Hints:
Blueprint: H1 3-22, H2 24-30, H3 32-42, E1 49-52, H4 61-68, E2 73-78, H5 81-94, E3 99-103, E4 116-122, H6 131-141, E5 142-153, H7 160-169, H8 193-201, E6 204-217, H9 221-231, H10 233-240, H11 244-258, E7 267-279
Parallel strand pairs: 1-2, 1-4, 2-3, 4-5
Antiparallel strand pairs: 5-7, 6-7
Helix pairs in contact: 1-5, 6-8, 7-11, 9-10, 9-11
Bound molecules: S-adenosylmethionine.
S-adenosylmethionine binds next to helix 1.
Amino acid sequence: MSDIQAGDTLREWTESARYWEKYSPFIRTMFAPVTAALIEDAGIREGQTVLDVAGGPGEPSLTIAETVGPSGSVICTDAVAEMVQAAERAAHGRGITNVSFRRCPADLFPFDRDSFDVVVCRLGVMFFPDPLSALREMLRVTKPRGMLALAAWHQSDLNPFCTSVSEVLSHYVETPPVDPGAPGAFRFAEPGKLANILRNAGAVEVRERILEFHIEAPISVHEFWELRSATSSTLREKLASFPDAQVCQVAEDVKEDVRGFFPNGQMSFPAQMIIVSGQKSQASTANYSAFTVANGPSDSLVRGDEF
Ligand SMILES: C[S@@+](CC[C@H](N)C(=O)[O-])C[C@H]1O[C@@H](n2cnc3c(N)ncnc32)[C@H](O)[C@@H]1O
């Protein structure tokens, strides 16, 4: 991935930040089972120090801060300043004080090696320009025998929450095939792919499991449309090129398609994620300086959607 493409990705997240902040109470509820899986697989407990990478507007940082309690602490990081500011406001609003905030990219932390008991990343690793060097950097700052836990989307056909809007849009605009190696929600949808990169980065005891759950929140079909079309920059960009009447038609089509996922008027999409965890070895001799794997988008394929 070139520096220009990496810059474009961060610009898109910067533009998305205000929508992620607006919907963050719902996003927290929707992905609470994923946070619980990360806490469980990393063995997070009271008193620990935890680093959250790509924490967006504050999760899973704030839930983990409650888990580690006042004798523990969390540092919430993100490459986008507006996301970090949103996370700070969320912590303030919830009265959570054992969490601090740093703006930094996932492959260059301003932290000493061996600093954290646990490093987590929920729905972030798929978007990093070079996931291998980011995972090596996460391991560098993890204490020996400390844990790393990551969450990524499983395959798109198992996740109608993500695909329902883009499927409708594909009836209106040509949709080029997505490059599976480029940053996007489903970059690590293939079981084993992320786990292998974590092993290559130097982690031991690497495990992977599929988390089946429901993405649930007390929102209506109309609110779902608003949330999805606002929080995804690829969807925002496509919709911006449509005349107003066509946007209304797309919205109606999407609402019709997803109605079955709103029993009793509340959202409940079946969903699957891949949870990958691993440990930093006790006597790691790895040199954690970054190096790059070639996985940028090719000319004929495009980046995937993001959530
Ligand atoms: C899908 S959001 C996930 C946010 C949060 N962890 C959650 O689960 O709600 C992805 C986040 O990754 C951040 N991000 C993208 N590229 C990054 C990078 N290279 N380094 C750090 N953060 C990055 C974005 O700014 C965004 O906040």
